[in-house]
Amino acid sequence: MRKAFLLQSTISNGVIWCLFLSWLSPGVSSIQANPTLLGFHPCSHAEWESGYFKVPFSENCNFTLYGRDFSVDTYVYFTTNPENCTSESYPRYSFKLTLPSWANKTSDVSYLNLNLPDDPDVLGNMVPLYFCFNYDQNTTEGSHQGSMPWLHFRLFNKDLLPVPVEIIFIICLIVLSACFSGLNLGLMSLNLTELKIVISCGSKWEKRCARVIHPIRKHGNYLLCTLLLGNVLVNSALTILLDNLTSGLIAVIGSTIIIVIFGEIIPQAICNRYGLFVGALTLPLTVLFLILTFPISFPISKLLDCILGEELGTNYKREELLELVKQDKKNLEQDEKNIIAGALEFKHKTASDVMTPINKVFMLEIKSILDFKTMMKIAQSGHSRIPVYENDPRNIIGLLFVKDLIFHDADDKIPLNTIVKFYNHQVKSVYFDTTLDKILNEFKTGRTHLAIVIKVNDSGEGDPFHENLGVISLEDIIEEIIQCEIVDESDRFFDNRSYIPVERSSFPDFHVFLDADSTTGKFYSIRTEMDLGSNIRGEINMKLTT
Q: Cα–Cα distance between 95 and 113 in angstroms, integer?
């Protein structure tokens, strides 16, 4: 209040002093017909600084002019030339003077209602304006009123806020712009599928962040509209404040650099890596703007939902998931990758891809006798299930399980046909194009772990018939899943396709039992009889000689 009183007193005293000096100026006649300006008093919101008045752009300012010979036909316009009115003047911004109500035709006091727009074609900031008087508002010819400090004023852009407050607001807007830009990338890149995965198997902190973000991330279009609208509003306000703080090209370049670096690049680089954590930490800000922008963002989001449909999240195809596993180089060991890849691929593989060809299968003829040599071949084959054929190896009629021979003595020379008919193991057949998942489901029932791979042979002139192509076992499928060959102590080859032999020091030679006698070595005679009434009698004679 005191400052305003002192300013008003200073202005009033300045006007009186200007009037006094003007009356003492030589060459001014009281009978001069042209209007003469001796001084003026601007509106209350004008500012006095360094010996001149500052009048804000685009605000009504009522001037009180003091001088001689003001009339109702007098027009006033302004020039930036301190000497004459014929150049650098702007008659389109001319104003007609108003006389006091008590005046007749002329007066020494008049009023001017000034409202100059912020027009860059007319005036720049803080450019001095000098008064020109004439009787025609459409001409630039007029009487210049002088360039003394009390006879001109300057226009300026009035600050919206004090400079310290503007700087604080600019910093806050930069932070908000960074948040909106970063969250737009960070939150929208977290699809619903990834959030569900993190909630299920993430770390403790990741689970907590994902649970917090998931409720708002479900409304993807609403969140997107809110973040974009907030970002646009903040950047627009930031540009206005920077333009008010500076001007022209500096404001444009400055706002561009600040928004791009601090409002786009840095926050997006951070949220691209730590979007989950940043999104959880800034959740209150996001919720606040979801509420504030609800009248605009929510209707637009519903329109997008109707047009684009509901967001479903990312769904990976089998091939994409397989490639994703293969590209991982930090979290998975190579063996783990192989097992996952095998589990994803085995459903698309068929029996013909993993079977043992029929010509590589160890089989027995149905007419074989289970003597010592035959039993030795069975033991050396290393197989627990052996196909049995009749006449032609492609005509498989049964299966022999090695465990069926536990209670049989090689010296009894029992016909193989007798064992096969007694146990009567059914031969399971699958077509060559049957996928491994279906064969695995069949093996899991426990009825059999080995199947004959067949196909319909319709070539030639005869009737179509089933042709045996090979054999597939449960071990073959498991090896395909784990992408690794299972080699036990009885295997002679690494796999059933390359037939690379297993490197062993030696394989057991059972001929030692065939050639041994009581004088040269060890002799074993093992006889076992099984009673049908479940009474087992065994006689074991063992003689050791050296």
A: 8
Q: What is the pLDDT of residues 120-142, one digit of tens each?
A: 455 556 778 888 888 876 666 77
pLDDT, one tens digit per residue, over 74-84 is: 888 888 888 88
List, run by run, the mean pLDDT of 10-residue segments along the chain (546 residues): 40 45 42 76 79 75 88 84 73 77 84 71 67 78 84 76 84 93 91 87 90 91 94 89 75 85 92 91 93 94 87 73 77 80 84 88 90 87 87 87 86 89 89 90 86 87 84 88 70 57 57 53 39 34 32
Inter-CA distances, 499 with 364, 439, 492, 496, Å: 21, 24, 9, 6
3-state secondary structure of 519: coil
How many C-beta atoms lie closer than 10 Å to residue 18's C-beta? 20
Backbone torsions φ then ψ of 300, nearest 5 degrees: -65, -40
Q: Which of 191, 68, 229, 183 is nearest to 133 (CA)?
A: 68
Produce one character per residue of 496-518: b if its CB has 16 or more CB atoms within 10 Å, e if not: beeeeeeeeeeeeeeeeeeeeee
Among 224, 192, 197, smallest CA distance to 314 is for: 192
Computed on alpha carbons and rounded to an integer, the radius of gyration of the chain in Å comes to 52
pLDDT of 488: 61
- What burial class does residue 122 get, using C-beta atoms within 10 Å of its C-beta: 0-12 exposed, 13-18 middle, 19+ buried? middle
How many secondary structure helices (H) and strands (E) does the chain include? 17, 21
Q: 38: helix, coil or strand? A: strand
Distance CA 534, CA 237 (A): 98
Sign of the torsion angle spanned by Cα atoms 137, 143, 144, 148:
negative
CA nearest to 21, candidates 155, 146, 154, 143: 146
Provide the pLDDT for residue 90. Answer: 61
Domains in the chain, please, with CATH? Answer: 2-156 (2.60.40.10), 163-308 (no CATH), 318-348 (no CATH), 351-500 (3.10.580.10)
Q: Quote the tokens at residue 380.
A: 């050396």
- The residues that bridge with 48 in the sheet, in sequence order, are 53
Task: Please name which of 341, 312, 343 lies closest in space to residue 324, comparing C-alpha atoms.
Answer: 341
Question: With a threshold of 0.85, does the pTM exceed it?
Answer: no
